[in-house]
Specification:
The complex is a heterotrimer. Chain A is of the alpha/beta class. Helix content of chain A is 25%, strand content 22%. In chain A, strands 3-2-1-4-5 form a five-stranded mixed sheet, sandwiched between helices. The radius of gyration of chain A is 13 Å and the shape is globular. Chain B is an alpha/beta fold. Chain B is built from ten helices and eleven strands. Chain C is an alpha/beta fold. Helix content of chain C is 38%, strand content 25%. Chain C is built from twelve helices and eleven strands. Chain C has a nine-stranded mixed sheet, with helices on both faces. The longest helix of chain C is centred in the middle third of the chain and has 17 residues. The two termini of chain C are 15 Å apart. The chains are: A alpha/beta, B alpha/beta, C alpha/beta. Chains in contact: A-B, A-C, B-C. At the B-C interface, α3, α5, α6 and α8 of B face α4, α7 and α9 of C.
């Protein structure tokens, strides 16, 4: 299973990034080899809108079956849902703990976006 | 002739002046409210017995609809779109976010399977009404939560034709693309401002924009407490025509609050406004109305 | 830190003057001027400007005349009337260009390139013991809300660095993208309105927007004595959207006078009734949006 999380940096001990669309990168944990890899979250830097959509696309293409983030807006959620990626939100905890929480079955996937769309 | 009324700063009296001009002048006059986010001109007419709504229609713009049977999931549309309005999802039909779509038609063009149709998505409304003897009010209105103002502004402006002696355009505040779309190719740009540091600062920004657009322009000072003020000084120094000063009167503010125009509050203004338009017309070498 | 955004729907209701006044009354605050189309807050707060950082959004097309074979396919395909022909060939109006890239795609000679569009700038500036983030959108630029977002993001960053309690945002007029970009994710909005038909009409639209985004709102009625009937209607309207009235301010020439002196009302005429009203309103705002231990827990 592949678990993706919005990250502030390459270190899994850093807190899950508060942003999704504009998080600098995603940390991707493969439960088979128990290793982290990274997906750069580079967007068309000039994009005025739709960063969440692009990030959701990156996640969908990574083969992840779940995305862990702090909040997920409606457009990104729509993309992830269509791609079959579950979305779980967490608070101020490190990526590694959020991944462990998911593996232990302690995280509930969202039924719908938990925040309204925005431009951040 | 088309005169656009604008202001760098909001709240200086742009709409008040536009409405007053439309009422003061005789002949076949059109007033187009291009402040589609917050259109206010109609508020001065809807209570009046001589106002009638003639037509209300939706404004749409083209957005993509993907024909799933023809789509091979190649993702060319998604790669092309610069607005993130189409998202490719592997082999299944891409997702479309119509609210981000600018209506450029690029996805339909680029699709190798011709699997993208364009359908009309409503984004606002145009309301056409009549008032006075032979006058028309056109109001452009953006749907709340809507994203694109230019298509509605362009559609509202199409109402103008040469059968009108004068068309007045009430432009949105500021100098961004909504303003440009509202005022471009008009014959004259009239800036309304107030004699305060905000009014002066925003007028200077607006003048820069007018020069970029290569439109002749002039200034009206609203809510003037004194004849000499920061705007008169600026206009003199920058050699900008200062066409009229409207004195600050509480009665105008009170009438405005009730949806009544400047002219009803201060009837003497009518002659001054007719004179104002005459001056503008002379300066663009046309016959007076 | 609490981020509160001052908006108005209709322009000219006193939003900027009040934002400046609140910043003088708050013990620990920072300010962000998100009215990027017509930024005025600096005229009252007089910041020492930091370096201007260029802002890029979208792209603009440009035609290489050496490669162009003048077939006109680009002009035909452009839906924004941005391409015109003149004696020298075809050219693109950068103000009208939407940056969609269709011209570049249809050109058989690869003569059209898409480039990043520099359409404004922003800076972090110092005011007294505090700071301000402000920006400028160049004339004709698309006001997508992206620059507003940049200003807010930078302001939040500086707020955290300096441990300021309040981030006061001077929001843009209208109900479009720039306003949405200024309010989403904030802790609350203060809607400055006036008791006029236009003010009430625009207030309805802004209340709809704010309630759609589930943001708590307070309403301030400025120039409240101009029309007591409409002021009453506004109170009812606010109630219908669960927005409380933070206070009312009478119509007073003191505001113009203060502004002409480059001062806020609370500096210019602190003992007068309008200044007292402004102070009382700020108190209401502080109390209403006070950080609550329960609220914070609920969101973590």
């Amino acid at each position: 299973m592949i678990i993706a999380a919005a990250a502030a940096g390459a270190d899994p001990e850093l807190i899950v990034d508060s942003r999704f669309g504009r998080a600098p990168l995603f940390l991707v944990y493969d439960t088979e080899n128990e290793r982290y890899s990274q997906i750069e979250n580079t967007q068309q830097l000039e994009s005025a809108q739709g960063a969440g959509i692009q990030s959701a696309q990156h996640i969908a293409e990574s083969g992840a079956s779940v995305l862990i983030c702090r909040h997920c807006g409606p457009k990104a959620f729509k993309v992830l849902k269509a791609a079959g990626v579950a979305v779980c939100t967490v608070g101020n905890i490190p990526v590694s703990k959020s991944v462990a929480a998911y593996i232990e079955g302690n995280l509930e996937p969202l039924e719908e976006a938990d925040v309204e769309g925005h431009w951040i | 002739m088309v005169i656009s009324i604008a202001s760098g700063k909001g709240g200086t009296g742009k709409t008040s002046l536009s409405v007053a001009l439309a009422q003061a002048l005789s002949g076949r006059v059109m007033l187009i409210d291009c402040d589609v986010e917050e259109p206010n001109c109609h508020l001065f007419f809807t209570d009046r017995p001589d106002y009638r709504v003639l037509e209300e229609r939706a404004v749409s713009h083209p957005v993509p609809e993907i024909v799933s049977d023809l789509c091979t999931g190649c993702g060319a549309c998604s790669n092309f779109c610069r607005f993130n309005a189409i998202v490719a999802l592997g082999s299944s039909t891409p997702l479309v976010f119509t609210e981000l779509c600018h209506g450029c038609g690029g996805c339909a063009f680029i699709c190798p399977e011709h699997a993208i149709m364009e359908i009309a998505e409503p984004i606002g409304t145009i309301i056409r009404g009549s008032f006075g003897e032979d006058k028309t009010l056109v109001t452009g209105k953006l749907t709340v939560g809507g994203v694109l103002t230019p298509p509605i502004i362009k559609e509202a402006r199409k109402s103008h034709n040469s059968s009108y002696d004068l068309t007045l355009i009430d432009a949105p505040p500021g100098t961004s693309c909504s303003f440009v779309t509202s005022v471009r190719k008009s014959d004259y740009l009239l800036f309304v401002t107030e004699p305060t540091p905000f009014g002066l600062h925003d007028l200077q920004l607006a003048v820069e924009a007018a020069k970029d657009l290569a439109l002749p322009f002039g200034v009206v000072v609203n809510k003037a407490a004194e004849t000499e003020n920061c705007i008169t000084k600026y206009c003199r120094e920058a050699d900008i025509p200062l066409l009229l000063q409207i004195r600050e009167q509480r009665v105008i503010a009170e009438f405005y609050s009730q949806g009544k125009s400047m002219i009803e509050a201060s009837p003497g203004l009518k002659e001054e406004l007719i004179e104002l338009v005459s001056t503008i017309m002379k300066s663009v070498n046309r016959e007076a109305v | 830190m609490r981020e509160i955004v001052m908006i108005s729907g209709k322009g000219g209701t006193g939003k900027t003057s009040l934002t400046a006044a609140f910043s003088k009354l708050a013990d620990s605050s920072m300010v962000a001027d998100c009215d990027v189309d017509a930024a005025d807050l600096h005229l009252l707060l007089k910041p020492i400007s930091g370096a201007a950082v260029p802002f890029f959004a979208g792209e603009v097309a440009s035609i290489d005349n050496e490669l162009c074979r003048q077939c006109g396919k680009c002009a035909e395909a452009c839906r924004f009337e941005a391409i015109t022909a003149d004696a020298e060939g075809f050219s693109i109006d950068p103000v009208l260009c939407e940056g969609c890239g269709v011209c570049s795609a249809v050109c058989p000679s690869e003569a059209v390139a898409m480039r990043s569009c520099e359409c404004g700038s922003w800076s972090v500036s110092e005011i007294d013991s505090s700071a301000m983030v402000h920006a400028r959108l160049y004339p004709g630029a698309e006001n997508s809300g992206k620059l507003v977002t940049v200003v807010r993001k930078e302001a939040k960053r500086v707020c955290e660095e300096r441990d300021a309690e309040w981030l006061l945002v001077d929001g843009p007029p209208g109900i479009g993208c720039p306003v949405i970009a200024s309010v989403t994710g904030s802790d609350g909005v203060v809607i400055i309105t006036e008791p006029t038909r236009s003010g009430k009409h625009d207030l309805t639209r802004i209340l709809k927007l704010v309630s759609h985004f589930r943001i708590p709102a307070l309403v301030v009625i400025n120039k409240a004595d101009i029309n007591k009937d409409v002021a009453g209607e506004i109170e009812e309207l606010a109630g219908a959207y669960q927005a409380e009235i933070a206070g009312k301010i009478i119509y007073s020439p003191l505001f113009f006078q203060a502004l002409s002196m480059g001062q806020t009302i609370v500096e210019f005429a602190p003992e007068t009734l309008p200044a007292q009203s402004v102070r009382a309103i700020w108190q209401e705002i502080e109390n209403y949006f006070q950080p609550s231990p329960y609220l914070d827990e609920a969101f973590s």
